[in-house]
Fold:
Amino acid sequence: MKRLVMIVTVLLTAVFTSAQGRFENYPLPQNPDTLRILAVGNSFSDDGTEYLPALLGGAGIHNVIVGRLYIGGCSLERHCKEYADNTPNYVYYKSTENRWITVSKNATFLDGLKDEPWDIITIQEVSNYSGTYPNYKEWTPKLISIIRKEALNPRATIAWHMTWAYASNSSHVAFPLYDRDQDKMYNAILNCVENASKDFNVPVVIPSGLAIQNARETRLNNDDRVNPEYTVVYQLTRDGFHLSRQYGRYIAACTWFETLIRPVLGKSVKGNPYLLEDTEFTIDKKDSRLCQKIAIKAVSSYYKK
Structure:
């Protein structure tokens, strides 16, 4: 009975809100004593945020808490169903001192959402459906309703993480949905995110997909140094869809930094000295500057449209 009431509440809230127009959202906070960011997502949010705490440390920023609430391949729909069922299927990572720790490998949706009064909560669609708007249209309002109902901070900014298109040679099972055409998939993602941003009042968009697509036009595209464990590296991915652990993840983390940290704390990723020292990979200063430039340009160009 409790589960049924929860499901009905979420559905009615979504219907009511849609009928009234766009969801209420709130601007990014300005210079808070502590900034709290939660990524509700899947492996693509892991890719996007993996190096964010280290970049924060490189910038001398020590007042940002970052959380990742993660299920591999988790869609907007599944997040809603995980909440309704209250099942402990999430891995919950957290950074409080600019390094990730695993809080729980058996967390529920609410374990992560209610752990902190998050200032920014990011959502995203699973890569399979990242360019399929009916999925956004059906499940985005339901997930936003859940977040608005349950978040400890009623004025949290809900932001969108725009993910990236697959590599041109990707063997991902969903690539045929886009005729195995990277440009077609990228443009579909871009259109879906822009429509969702307008339809559901989510103006803050982290344009990782744009940054990665732009980076594919540079010398970084096929120059990653291969970890023997991952022998396929192509177009800034390590397997055709997950980002490479060197340039791909670095570019995405710079994009997160420039989108969320710069407008809130006033510090750009430009000139950040972090060079993957705490990983098995390396990146020199010249390449790190290029990655940072790509991220800065992607954020600037996205918001100029």
About this structure: The chain is about 45% helix and 15% strand. The CA atoms of residues 54 and 91 lie 20 Å apart. Residues 285-304 form the longest helix (20 residues).
